[in-house]
Amino acid sequence: MKTALITGASRGIGTACAIALAKSGFNIVLNFNNSEEKALNLKKIIEDNYTVAVLCVKADVADKAQVDDMVDKALAEFNSIDVLVNNAGVSLLKLFTDTTVEEWNTIISTNLTSVYNCCHSVLSNMIRNHSGSIINISSMWGQVGASCEVAYSASKAGVIGLTKALAKEVAPSNIRVNCVAPGVIMTDMMSSFTEEEIELLKEDIPMGEIGTAKNVADTVAFLASDRAQYITGQVIGVNGGMVV
Q1: Structural Rg of the chain based on CA atoms
Q2: Is the pTM of this model over 0.85?
Q3: Which domains, ranges and CATH numbers included, belong to the chain?
Q4: Among this protein's residues, is 152 annotated catalytic?
């Protein structure tokens, strides 16, 4: 049985990805940093509903040493990591001129450096197995940029660049690297928006609806599957037509 590691798995898109991949028959490694209770609850939900094993591992994915330790624990438990979903991330809605160096560094380290950390840690196992799928979660703002989200947009654009370059580098080892770029998705990141603001957002979306975490997770599950065996280096938008 294959194994999938999902970072930031305790909520939102990460939780939906863990469930979708468990449904597809993967053993699951749930990464969390602060939300241990949510991760343990998710572990129970998955184990109660699917015939897979689940391991919860605490790690700050912005810290390479913690990531290396997490991957070692996953390999000790399951022997291989066949799918990596780099989902962990944070947002910042703020004027660029008001963004502090500390805030910039936090966004870049959490959203971009974490992808380096996790990819770097799992690749030796994937290369040895001559197989693997890495799926990075970016954002439509990484594709086109967003006013008052310069740090976030820059970090997510970096994820896209990393995806495309790494895909070329590891393709000879039969490892695929792809990117999912969600649009407006109803997650905790939307908690600060009023109902009026959400309705205004819907007007900007050609399909007229806010996306769900499951919409993103279904795309991730496809990219993790053998049905996507000839797809690599791609950025797939899940945005209801907001960015085309």
Answers
A1: 17
A2: yes
A3: 3-238 (3.40.50.720)
A4: yes
